[in-house]
Amino acid sequence: MASLTKNKNVKIKDTFGDKVLNWFTGFFLIFVIAIVAYPLMFVISASFSSSKALEAGKVFMFPVDPTLYAYQFVLGYEPVWTGFRNTIFYCAWGVFLDTFLTLLVAYPLSRPNFAGKRAYTMVFYLSTRIGAGLIPGFLLRVDLGMYDTLWPILFPGAVAVGNILVLRTAIKSGIPGELFDAAMIDGASHFQCMITLVLPLAKATLSVLVLYSLVGHWNEYFNAMIYLSNKELYPLQLVLRPVMTAGAGSQGINAAESATSSQAQKDEGLEHVRYALIVITTAPIIVAYSFVEKYFEKGMMMGSVKG
Amino acid sequence: MANPTVRIENQSVYSSRMEKFWANFKANWQLHLMVCLPMFYLILFHYVPMYGIQVSFKTFSPRAGIWGSEWVGLKNFDKFFGYYLWKEVVWNTVAIAGYSLLVGFWPPIILALCIHINTGKILKKVTQRVSYVPHFISVVVLVGMINTVLNPVTGFMAYFIRIFDIKDYVDIRGSREAFRHLYVWTGEWQGLGWSSILYVSTLSSVPAELHEAAKIDGASRLRRVWSVDLPTLLPLMALQFILSSGGILSVGYQKAYLMQNAMNHEVSEVISTYVYKNGIRAGDASFGSAVGLLQTLISTCLVFFVNWIADLLSDGEYGVF
After folding, report:
1. Interface test with B, best of A11, A19, A24, A25 (most B CBs within 10 A)
2. Does A278 touch chain B (CB under 8 A)?
3. How many CB atoms lie under 10 A from the CB of residue B48?
């Protein structure tokens, strides 16, 4: 077997059918790339185009009549800054809390001789199946005087059980048990093991989980919409909402327009501002993704395949 | 210290299970300490609020609070079935979720297979990287993209309308007929690459020897897809199908709510948006809670039902629970 594959002469050639299949799948992949990428490209191009070119239907793929006006407008729009500030704060806190809790559960559950493992797993798993539901949770928090405070945003209540299972599997199958045994014989406590062994050795999986958590908190708006009425506390997504959803009526952007712009700016038109908003608010998360991307396959596979 | 159970098993000095557990606890107390913080968090913020479910059977008044409100039995449930559009709301939910499941289930598998089959390394990498990107876009922005990109005056269609000089175009953002397609296919656009990850990594876990052996026996690539790759995917496909079947009654609040406008209201009202509107915006908490409870109960039953069917069809091989 080994000699067969090493000997180049015996390599089995692709048949005609195989080649056709390869072409066919290649076309399909290119098709997928085009379908997925085109709307993204259009949004980026539109954000750099002038509003007039947009309204005249001239933009197809590349910016027409390039201008940075839309970005200037967005950056001059005060609530966007407030939103960014709040979102960054919520993200920093949320990612810390998520990762910390996940690690604190995943490490013990990955230890082979930990009695009580099944019971703990059950309690955590059950929380994904049953919960109070939207209304009771809302009532309770209102009862506790949490309405319009940061508490419901900072402590949303769910633990990312899926992430726990992924990290547990990654520790179990990715870090040899002998390493832990050796550390313990040398007198390390479980806490030390967690910090000095798990943190560096499960880096790939951890960074993927951090990304998940970051994406979740960056894109979160529903909790904030329910619990916050103070606009100073609004996360970015909630600031965007009126501008983004005002489809046919476009009240949101009109309100923003009449509040901040002069007549000259109104003449310029503001449709491309929405595109710029989309780009500005989504770009940070895509950049974060591209940093973690190299860990991606490794980190995902560890948790999923053997899970 | 390091490996207590080995010692425990060799010496049978521990007479009862309790003592055995105690010995394990003494060795592993640090682990219990670690779990206890997240446990506390989960119980406090997730399980404790469950006592509020009782408002489904009460008429909630803010002054009396959750405990003090008056019991009314099943009145809130009656009220939902008395609502003249309740069938529409349920049907909208089932239609959207069923359509999503039907349309959304296959493309990630096909994409994963194509990525697996194709031999162009760069092409594969590019496809994967590009197709993951939409997953990171938030619901708010996605709906914003739908509203801007599909705007017939300033979106990409404006280009085609100008080029082909189309006169009688419709604004599909406000079209009632188009809503479901729009909802499902934009979801597909967003989730396609991401959902395929699991399948791709499962496919790459197939031992190379299996393919090698099949090749030597003269199997074409297509034949190997059929006899090697697909059987590997089957258990995962069953699992995914079972898990997503529970969602047939739970179209998320987020996207449906954001996509709602005056024109598509009749088809875009789903159970969760109905709950949100009645329970929180209109303030009828008991009613909202009751409808939400009903939805959760039926969804849970559905998961077990589909699991049972899968179990039955595969002789206990593909069941999850």
Report:
1. A25
2. yes
3. 14
Domain residue extents for chain A: 2-67, 72-304
The residue type of A293 is E
Q: DSSP code of B74?
A: T
ipTM above 0.85, yes or no: no
pLDDT, tens digit, 9 for 90 and up, residues A253-277: 444 444 444 444 444 567 788 889 9
- List pLDDT tens digits, range B205-260: 788 888 888 888 888 888 888 888 888 888 888 878 877 776 677 677 788 888 88
Nearest CA in chain B to A129: B300
Q: How far is CA B124 from the centre of its chain?
A: 27
Buried residues in A227-243 as b, exposed as e (16+ CB within 10 A): bbeeeebbbbbbbbbbb
Question: Which residues of chain A have a CB within 8 Å of the CB of B24?
Answer: 113-115
- CATH level 2 (architecture), domain A72-304: Orthogonal Bundle (1.10)
Of residues B303 and A281, more confidence is placed in A281
What share of chain B has pLDDT > 90, as a percent?
14
Task: Answer for the pair A49, A66: CB distance below 8 angstroms, yes or no.
Answer: yes
User: Is B11 an 8 Å CB contact of chain A?
Assistant: no
Nearest to B45 among A15, A25, A155 (CB): A155
The CATH number given to B75-313 is 1.10.3720.10
Closest-CA distance, A297 to chain B, in angstroms, reads 8
Shortest distance between the Cα of B162 and any Cα of chain A, in A, equals 6
Check if B192 contacts A (Cβ < 8 Å): yes
Nearest neighbour of B114 by CB, restricted to A29, A277, A281 = A29
For chain B, give the mean pLDDT. Answer: 83
- CA-CA distance, B188 to B196, in Å (whole number)? 11
A48 to chain B, minimum CA–CA distance in Å? Answer: 13
